[in-house]
Amino acid sequence: MIPVDIDALKANHPEHWMRATAIRALALDAVAKANSGHTGMPIGMADVATVLWSKHMKFDAAAPEWADRDRFILSAGHGSMLLYALLYLVGDAEITIDEVRNFRQLGAKTAGHPENFLAKGIECTTGPLGQGISMSVGFAIAEESLRARWGKKVFDHHTYVIAGDGCLMEGVSQEAIALAGRQKLGHLVVFWDNNGITIDGKVSISDNTNQPERFAASGWHVQEIDGHDPEAIDAAIAAAKADDRPSMIACKTHIALGHAAQDTSKGHGALTDAQQAIDAKGVWGWTAPAFEIPAEIKSWWEEAGSRGASERKEWEDRVAALSEAKQKELARMLAGEAPKKLSSTVKALKKQISESQPKVATRKSSEMVLEVINPILPETIGGSADLTGSNNTLTKDLGTFDFDSRKGRYVYYGIREHGMAAAMNGMALHGGVRPYGGTFMCFTDFARPAMRLAALQHIPTVFVMTHDSIGLGEDGPTHQPVEHLAISRATPNTLVFRPADTVETAEAWEIAFTQSATPSVLALSRQNLPTVRTEHKTKNLSAQGAYVLAEAEGKRQAIMIATGSEVAIALAAREALQAEGIGTRVVSMPCMELFADQDEAYRKRVLPAGPVRVGIEAACRLGWDRWLTGERGRANKADFVGMDSFGASAPAEELYAHFGITAEAAVEKVKALL
Amino acid sequence: MIPVDIDALKANHPEHWMRATAIRALALDAVAKANSGHTGMPIGMADVATVLWSKHMKFDAAAPEWADRDRFILSAGHGSMLLYALLYLVGDAEITIDEVRNFRQLGAKTAGHPENFLAKGIECTTGPLGQGISMSVGFAIAEESLRARWGKKVFDHHTYVIAGDGCLMEGVSQEAIALAGRQKLGHLVVFWDNNGITIDGKVSISDNTNQPERFAASGWHVQEIDGHDPEAIDAAIAAAKADDRPSMIACKTHIALGHAAQDTSKGHGALTDAQQAIDAKGVWGWTAPAFEIPAEIKSWWEEAGSRGASERKEWEDRVAALSEAKQKELARMLAGEAPKKLSSTVKALKKQISESQPKVATRKSSEMVLEVINPILPETIGGSADLTGSNNTLTKDLGTFDFDSRKGRYVYYGIREHGMAAAMNGMALHGGVRPYGGTFMCFTDFARPAMRLAALQHIPTVFVMTHDSIGLGEDGPTHQPVEHLAISRATPNTLVFRPADTVETAEAWEIAFTQSATPSVLALSRQNLPTVRTEHKTKNLSAQGAYVLAEAEGKRQAIMIATGSEVAIALAAREALQAEGIGTRVVSMPCMELFADQDEAYRKRVLPAGPVRVGIEAACRLGWDRWLTGERGRANKADFVGMDSFGASAPAEELYAHFGITAEAAVEKVKALL
Questions:
Q1: Could you count the other beta carbons within 10 Å of the beta carbon of residue B458?
Q2: CATH number at residue B624
Q3: Closest Cβ opposite residue B486 in set A169, A478, A490
Q4: Reaction catalysed by this chain (chains A, B) (predicted)?
Q5: Looking at chain B from residue 165 to 204, which residues have their Cβ under 8 Å from any Cβ of chain A?
Q6: Residue A199 to residue B632, Cβ atoms within 8 A
Q7: DSSP A153
């Protein structure tokens, strides 16, 4: 154990010490009761958190959803008891002492890691390391954007982050740091809990990076302080707020301060030894029973929790002084509601497309849709991970979001798919903006941790994934998705759209932009596709997930089910089969999840028992059997045209022929099954 | 265009200029003929590559698999024509001028991005940015490890990397840089192609990181040079080799040097304009027809290609001077062949386990297996992304791999799942070592880009993924995999094992360690599991992917198919069903891919038509329908017990009950189907 003079800490700031130790005691008690969790981090960062929440954080514990509050992001999410202790102490209505006692139990709001959907006071779900700090960049972007558009009187707050060594070792943190530095996100303040300990031992066994130099290399304002000195903490936060760059405050701390496990990797985990707990409390000078906070300390904390109430009231007055139209618009954007015009705009576009029947790639279709949607949805913030011209994510009216043009709505994320996805999650969580961003679909892999967190956090981030198959062509198998539709479809609470043409693309965007709690993945083609929805329907057919695009003529002997670029192949196969008198229905299935949500009667109408079934998708079969052999299908009457290996490097049409994803192959499979 | 005095470049080093321009001309010709690709990067980095390959790289073009060659990794894989041009120029037997002419066409070895399995001269598959630089860390670790064990006379080579801005923006590069710096990988040299251009425009629109400072912060030796000055390049490489830290050489270059697209984002892509090509060649002073290299220049390059022949011969003599036993062992390890003892060791352990029938978590089973395998497989290099005690990846005999203990075989990777996975790929590609490494299965997401590349590259990396379900318990849904089995199963050329007990775990390891071209994922439980293989069988039953673990008594009315921790639940369900007179077979299915590979007759024996089928796996159903409703199954006679949402934070047993993954639920489903 590195010696620390705890008596001196107590003596120098006796009141602060006891207030901070309230956090320590709650963390120790809750983890011990749960017999699992992470005790040391809340103990080590209690001083920083106490100064931050009592002196700097702008919030009102009675109004955790106040739009102009400062955001607090516990990137080191395993230290969740730090957050729960703070919320309980300041008087949050949901995180009661019973919840703290119920830490990590079924149904509790105090889950093992913070989960934003369990309590309003929890800004985001963290635990997978590096995600919090990366989402914080999105929070800060949202704030800058809204401040530029609405003025400082409506939006003017900070984003505070506590990150540990794990967060900084995760690669995504570099993407976040570099993006924040480039964008000069001056309202972002990151505290690095520099305790020198990870699970496997000292940080030094796996890392010797000079973190302050690393942040400085990306344009951050950097300070290094004793993380147990409240005056130093206070001064550092003040300096951070005064600087127009993002700030990193390196806080030298002792994990599990005062406990027998202090400064050890054991201190990272659950400290459950009863005698050691008694001893630690003795060292801290804490005499209250478990889960009890002396009234004086609790009321001081509650005062800190209501410190922002008057500021909030003033903010509400300022908002009430806005024009009625502006107030309505602000409320709509904050609620994440789509404007009424969205539906009519999409309908008008669909009608025009069904008439003009363009043959374009669906990535281009997506751009055509965004060109009409972005002007009526001022809350959208688009972007791309350095593939703007390929992802077709930029529309004419957006302008560039930059440090000198904060009203711009297009972010050049750089080659940072993961950082982009996490930042978009942060924006969606912040509220008031609606993020979408593009990359090649194959790089779903890079963005995965954040894409999963979008689903888990119940937020409507939109991932624009272009070049969605071997149709990508010559760039070859490193860039050709095969398993990525399955990956996103396997993820709970995720809508995966693979539209067949511009009409379905418009329908997909309409659905994506009306979600409030579910992310969407748009899988879009590189190659040109014919318009298959040539008959205008005002109804959003994609909202049913799958529908009959072309009915069988004569006796229905076969059903071909296809998505995206393969719908045209299915139609060609149908034509060939019909020519031979084989009645064939074509079902377009742009969204399996939405189809699965339909009632049995509808699903049965689309996929009745009887006819042979052939699925067509230039991707792996995994996930298709449900529709081929399940849902009234039969194993000996079903087949699939798709990929069972990685792709190859060649022109797209040659690859389709080489891998046998053709109308001829589909026809043969149908005939073999009849 | 930033003005460059190309005449001065030519005049100062006229011979060098023409040799380097041979690369430029080939890149320009090949991309133009393919009408796709990336012209500018090979043009910009031709000078660096020329100096490196002709003056420093230890290689013999006639022996591309020489074990002690220097490795060249084109992390900026889109610049593949740089590598193909070099290989052709030095006389590689596979990359002929016809292959260069056939760039990016079906069946060519000259794919859009370098693919290691197409030609021996290609060390690894790159293109997904950041992967090459991250794999290079593994190459360098392998070399250090082998040098320590075999001596400098057998292994003493360098790993050279060309990385672009995209590589350095990708987060994984930070994991690689920090790991290499910490490990003082002095034989690793990274050239940063500092051309200031990405696809979306100037690097400065998305990044202003001071890369030299960033590398220096992680303990790298850093130099900054003019990347078109052959003397500066030569001196920098010499200095890099002399330094005992990993080296980064920042090379200021001009993308598409001398072309109309120089220094623009257009120069990044395919330059196909015929007149501009003529003009560029004019600027370069290049008069040879397309795809032709003047004899003098070609023979100079071929001389560079055979420069290492004598060194290789001396190396072969030194190896031949080793004892016969050592030569055999070296050959075995380089060939990636498992020792004969592996099979008997696994059999002995299985026998002992079937007798003692321990109830342990399969992560612990995995440790028990490794404890007996590691001593007989000296080529293994284990590790964990900071979860050693949880992943159970460390065995007693390994020792720590570190800068002062290179013979150690355990790497503390830090909280870097992605960097670990990529480094392991690099080790596997290097050869002579067999890497495995652990993290929580949920963090498959972080490692995904490298896990996919393991499969695509045909290498046997082993991913030890513990805490493979809601059985993880209190850490909650951020740490509980639901879709991750499906993710890995959807990936081509990947074996996904979910062993039910220690016997199956031993079988899985035996299969994983005998693979030569396929990565394995071991999904292991956190929670204790009973031994289900209580009857010893010398045969590796897991190698068939699935097998009958318990036969129905009486008329076979039901088949329960389960994996991993749910096999014991299936057995309990069977017992309850048998007690009611319902004959029930239990099929353990530790590896779906291997089962799919069995012949129809075997699959039919295991999964005959007729009985109802219920699958049990604490994960999403996606991927299961193939075995439930396909394979002679029927949609109305099949059901699944598993997850259809994210998990929750609570003790494991409560979660199993809460989500209905119980023997009772399985029994009910069977009865409902009968």
A1: 18
A2: 3.40.50.920
A3: A490
A4: D-sedoheptulose 7-phosphate + D-glyceraldehyde 3-phosphate = aldehydo-D-ribose 5-phosphate + D-xylulose 5-phosphate
A5: 165-166, 169-175, 178-179, 181-182, 198-201, 203
A6: no
A7: T
**Number of C-beta neighbours around residue B441 at 10 A:** 31
Please name the residues between 489 and 528 in chain A that touch chain B, using a CB distance below 8 Å. Answer: 489-493
List pLDDT tens digits, range B586-625: 999 999 999 999 999 999 999 999 999 999 999 999 999 9
pLDDT tops 60 at residue B187: yes
Q: pLDDT digits over B629-666, tens only? A: 999 999 999 999 999 999 999 999 999 999 999 999 99
Interface test with A, best of B415, B459, B632, B656 (most A CBs within 10 A): B415
C-alpha to C-alpha distances, A608 to A139, A569, B277, B570, nearest whole angstrom: 48, 22, 59, 33
Do A21 and A88 fall within a single domain? yes
What's the domain range around A515? 341-529
**Chain A residues with CB inside 8 Å of B216's CB?**
213
C-alpha–C-alpha distance, residues B112 and B106, integer Å: 10
Separation of alpha carbons B597 and B611, rounded Å: 23
With a cut of 50, which residues of chain A have pLDDT below it?
none
Q: Are residues A366 and A284 in the same domain?
A: no
Q: What is the pLDDT of residue A3?
A: 72
Say what angle helices B417-430 and B444-456 make with each other, to 10 degrees: 20
Q: Which helix (H) or strand (E) holds A419?
A: helix A417-430
Average pLDDT taken over every residue of chain A:
98
Whether A392 and A446 share a structural domain: yes
Return d(Cα A14, Cα A228) in angstroms, integer.
Answer: 12
Residues A664 and A592 in one domain: yes
Query: What is the torsion angle, in degrees rounded to the nearest 10, for the CA atoms of residue A199, residue A201, residue A207 and residue A211?
Result: 70
Of A529, A563, A586, the residue that ends a domain is A529
Instruction: For residues B610 and B463, state if they share a domain.
Output: no
Q: Tell me if A319 is assigned to some domain.
A: no
Please say which residue of A293, A312, A331 terminates a domain: A312
- Report if residue B80 sits inside a domain: yes
Name every chain A residue with its beta carbon within 8 A of the beta carbon of B443.
128, 449
Q: Which residues of B fall within a CB distance of 8 Å from A205?
A: 412, 414
Cα A486-A492-A494 angle, rounded to 5 deg: 75
Question: What per-residue confidence (pLDDT) applies to A1?
Answer: 52
* A218 and A116 within one domain: yes
Measured CA to CA, the distance from residue B619 to residue B598 in angstroms comes to 24
Question: Strand (E) positions, A164-245?
Answer: 188-194, 197-198, 201-202, 221-226
Q: What pLDDT is recorded for position B1?
A: 52
For B250-270, write each residue's pLDDT tens digit. 999 999 999 999 999 999 999
| Residue A599: how many other CB atoms lie within 10 Å | 8
Q: Which of A417, A504, A510, A566 is the catalytic position?
A: A417
In terms of C-beta distances under 8 Å and separation of at least 24 residues, what long-range contacts does B655-663 make, across chains too?
Answer: B655/A106, B655/B470, B655/B471, B655/B473, B656/B470, B656/B471, B656/B618, B658/A106, B659/B470, B659/B618, B661/B470, B661/B566, B661/B569, B661/B616, B661/B618, B662/B569, B663/B569, B663/B570, B663/B572, B663/B573, B663/B575, B663/B576
A156 and A56 in one domain? yes
Q: Does residue A21 sit within a domain? A: yes
Q: Is B417 a catalytic residue?
A: yes
Q: Which of B386, B449, B455 sits opposite A198 (nearest CB)?
A: B386
Q: Looking at residue B222, which CATH number applies to its domain?
A: 3.40.50.970
User: What distance in Å separates the CA atoms of residue A387 and residue A467, rounded to the nearest whole number?
Assistant: 11
Full DSSP string of A478-523: TS--SSHHHHHHHSTT-EEE--SSHHHHHHHHHHHTT-SS--EEEE
Say if residue A548 is in the same domain as residue A622.
yes
ipTM over 0.90: yes
How many structural domains are present in chain A? 3
User: Is residue B329 assigned to a domain?
Assistant: no
